[in-house]
Write a structure and sequence with these properties.
By secondary structure, the protein is α+β, with helices and mostly antiparallel strands. 20% of the residues lie in helices and 30% in strands. It is built from 13 helices and 42 strands. Strands 9, 12, 13, 14, 15, 16, 17, 18, 19, 20 and 21 form an eleven-stranded mixed sheet that branches. Strands 32-34-35-42-38-39 form a six-stranded antiparallel sheet. It starts with a helix and ends with a strand.
Length: 792
């Protein structure tokens, strides 16, 4: 027993040594003399790149000469990682001929640090990277004074001791639909909120500890097990965030101001009606070390203790911090739930409640694309509008019936990782841009408000390219910024790169996966344009990456959002698109003969047995050509058996030229149509002239089965020969007939639709001749849409 007592004393001494009572941080080690010339201000700044998170109090010692006039006052300031300025004005004046000491409280939330030019509260995360500390001296004596002021020392007291017990503080439940929590919409913990099914259940809270990198789950891991009324358990992660206030300048520019302090959120969307339980748990690296130490100490003591006094070795579970179980009520809602590939017809999408979903979409990558759709179009592009551009464009798209957009998480828009000096808010590899995260919050919430769906592209090709839209030299994964990649191709096999990308995707799932209005995660844009000019794109290695990351994303996403990726060319896409982890097949279609190309790409993508759609199209050398492509791309894609309309790239052109009305006719034509389970085939319908011969210039594209057809009669000179000359002044063709073969014998209702008004211009009932329907059609000027359905 004597040995046991000595062992306990030794362990206690070691514990005390591990937690010293205090420590100093020298900001200015040696005295400095600074020349003053009052009444001009004196400004002395120490450039820094230091971690002050442990500093509890800062002390500044200044000596003023005897002859310095009375009334000298001081102002101290500090700059954080994003160059946000905080200042402190000590009370009273400094004394001449004396040593003056200024003592400043540095604790998180200290009210003496006043933000200037922003509203971000001073906290331990702001103190993690201090860019500079400065002192200003003021003296308004009209006689003036010149002389040397001596700054003796600047240092911080840490008062380091054992860290606080890991726990949650200030837990708030935010009611759905209130984006400004914790400032508004919060409720007490004794008042379980009622959340619409598929709505957002959100918690906000603080932690008693801070971390060097709160985005690293190896440092701090906050998660919850959420149990449904039927007993199903889901795991979802919490995430750190920061609030911003948005305003628009008189010139229309977005202005973002950080407010408050960094804090944590947890988001979840219920998919069952009834009472849900939420069990939050906390685990951090300090807890891990405490557990390991407790295990080692127990094992060491057990070796010395007799068998009857030995203690059980602590388990990891005993050290996980658990929060009291919370509950909320999920109530019925009008939401259709999350979008997935339809269970019965894998060529289309449906919502969780079984509702058919047909995306009618527009590309909306970022506020502006500075490139031009064709030479000579010189409308101003306003990138600086930021989210205000999204508000306007999304609103106008929604009013026109568009229900789907595609957004990029690019470095220049709502990306999370980039070198610190790339743009405001970035903090380097493994640290996320909270300003951009707030912007994406806003976009997702706006989509929820409008009933629109979003495909979020997680990486654009330029980030791994040195030759096409090259951004590899601005990528934080590059070795020049401390990352693991010497060349872009290393990304696909690097274990370090995999660790960082999975960590980023975990944050994305934690923050945005709750939203049923996010239709899918898109791993890459134009992935086949990545890498450098001297490297070969190895599609097999890229496919392995997509397989592994697809499985990872499905494993951490409680709602199993669809996963896809995007190729510029379909030449090598099949290896990736065939993967079971890839749910649907998008792609580009920058071709002059848009209709024939759309038909051919459908035939190519059909082989995968998955929903197919075009995410980008739009090519032309004039307004006539680009608008003919816009119109032709929409209508050719909507009459084919594609899962959604093709998405026009030039969103700024649509906005500036006010072409939103082009969508409503497509919307009306598709209203009430459920495409599932109909075994669609390409139609071989034809237009014939009055003489009965095949028409020279009018063609038909469409889909049909034995009892139904959706067709588009079009002027091939306008839409397939790339002239553009006839788009504004198309000729009128009369005396025409339409033949639709391969229909079951019987009577059919035939509707002829205007593609510019979205209205039926003529309708008739026609009986087939054998298996062929033949009917006169109205005059065709550019194009005409047709529906053929079995008559009751």
């Amino acid at each position: 027993m004597k040995n046991l007592g000595l062992a306990i004393l030794a362990l206690a001494a070691a514990a005390l040594a591990a937690h010293p009572a205090s420590a100093d941080i020298d900001v200015l080690k040696k005295p400095v003399e600074v020349q003053a010339a009052f009444p001009a201000d004196l400004d002395f700044e120490v450039p820094l790149n230091d971690d002050w998170s442990a500093v509890k109090e800062l002390r500044v010692t200044i000596t003023l000469p005897e002859d310095c006039p009375r009334g000298t006052t001081a102002l101290c300031y500090v700059k954080d990682a994003q160059w946000n300025w905080y200042q402190h004005e000590p009370e009273g004046a400094l004394r001449s001929g004396r040593i003056n000491q200024i003592r400043i409280d540095m604790s998180a939330g200290a009210e003496n640090w006043v933000p200037r030019g922003h509203s971000r509260e001073w906290d331990a995360y702001g103190a993690r990277v201090v860019r500079g500390f400065g002192i200003k001296l003021f003296n308004s004596d009209p006689k003036g004074w010149k002389g040397a002021v001596r700054i003796e020392r600047i240092y911080g007291l840490t008062g380091a001791g054992k860290p606080e017990r890991l726990a949650i503080s200030d837990l708030r439940v935010c009611r759905t639909g209130i984006p400004a929590c914790p400032e508004g919409g919060q409720t007490g913990m004794s008042d379980p909120p009622r959340i619409p099914n598929f709505g957002k259940y959100e918690l906000s809270f603080d932690l008693t500890r801070t971390y060097d990198n709160p985005f690293d789950p190896d440092e701090i891991d906050v998660r919850a097990t959420v149990t449904s009324p039927s007993g199903k358990a889901y795991t979802q992660f919490a995430f750190q965030t920061r609030d911003y206030v948005r305003r628009q300048s008189p010139l229309g520019e977005e202005r973002m101001t950080p407010v408050g302090k960094a804090y944590w959120k947890f988001r979840f969307a219920p998919n069952e009606v009834g009472t849900w339980k939420v069990d939050l748990t906390l685990w951090d690296n300090a807890t891990l070390q405490d557990w390991k130490k407790a295990v080692a100490d127990t094992e060491a003591l057990n070796k010395l203790a007799p068998p009857n006094l030995r203690k059980p070795v602590p388990t990891r579970e005993q050290f996980i911090v658990k929060v009291k179980t919370l509950t909320f009520e999920s109530v019925p809602s009008a939401s259709h739930g999350f979008v997935h590939v339809d269970a019965k017809d894998p060529m289309y999408f449906s919502c969780q409640d079984g509702t058919f979903f047909y995306p009618i979409g527009q590309m909306l990558r970022s506020p502006a694309d500075v490139r031009r759709p064709f030479p000579g179009w010189d409308a101003p592009m306003h990138e600086e509008e930021g989210t205000y551009a999204f508000d306007r464009i999304m609103g106008r798209l929604s009013a026109g019936g568009v229900n789907f957009i595609r957004v990029w998480m690019s470095l220049w828009w709502v990306g999370l990782e980039a070198p610190r000096d790339y743009a405001p808010g970035y903090a380097g590899l493994g640290r996320y841009n909270m300003l951009n995260a707030w912007r994406l919050d806003h976009i997702v919430e706006e989509a929820e408000r409008l009933g629109m769906y979003v495909k979020i592209n997680l990486n654009n090709h330029g980030q791994l390219s040195r030759h096409v839209d090259q951004e590899f030299f601005e990528n934080s994964y590059n070795t020049m910024y401390g990352g693991p990649l010497k060349v872009p191709a290393d990304f696909w096999t690097s274990k370090q790169a995999r660790k960082y990308i999975e960590r980023r995707y975990r944050y994305i799932v934690a923050r945005w996966a709750y939203s049923a209005n996010i239709m899918a995660w898109e791993m890459w844009n134009e992935v086949d344009l990545t890498e450098g000019p001297e490297e070969v794109f190895d599609v097999d290695i890229v496919a392995n990456w997509h397989r592994d990351i697809g499985r990872y994303m499905k494993s951490i996403d409680p709602w199993k959002h669809m996963i896809t990726t995007h190729f510029y060319s379909d030449d090598q896409s099949g290896v990736v698109y065939s993967l079971p982890e890839i749910d649907f097949t998008p792609g580009d279609l920058y071709k002059p003969n848009i209709v024939t190309s759309m038909r051919n790409v459908w035939l190519l993508k059909k082989q995968y047995g998955k929903p197919a759609m075009i995410s980008e199209f739009g090519q032309g050398r004039s307004a006539d050509q680009i608008e003919a492509q816009f119109h032709g791309g929409l209508w050719s894609s909507t009459v084919l058996p594609m899962a959604g309309t093709a998405m026009f790239w030039w969103w700024n052109y649509v906005d500036v030229e006010n072409l939103y009305s082009a969508y409503m006719p497509v919307v009306e034509f598709n209203k009430g149509e459920d495409r599932r389970g109909k075994d669609w085939q390409l139609s071989s319908a034809q237009v014939r002239s009055a003489s009965g011969s095949l028409h020279d210039e009018l063609r038909v594209l469409g889909r049909q089965n034995s009892t139904e057809a959706h067709l588009w009669v079009y002027d091939s000179v306008i839409f397939n020969e790339d002239s553009g000359e006839r788009y504004r002044r198309p000729p009128t063709f009369s005396g025409l007939s339409l033949t639709v073969p391969n229909l079951a014998a019987g009577k059919y209702r035939v509707e002829f639709w205007s593609t510019t008004t979205g209205k039926i211009v003529d309708a008739k009932t026609v009986e087939t001749q054998g298996e062929t329907l033949k009917t006169p059609i109205p005059d065709v000027k550019a194009d005409l849409a047709v529906k053929v359905k079995r008559a009751p």
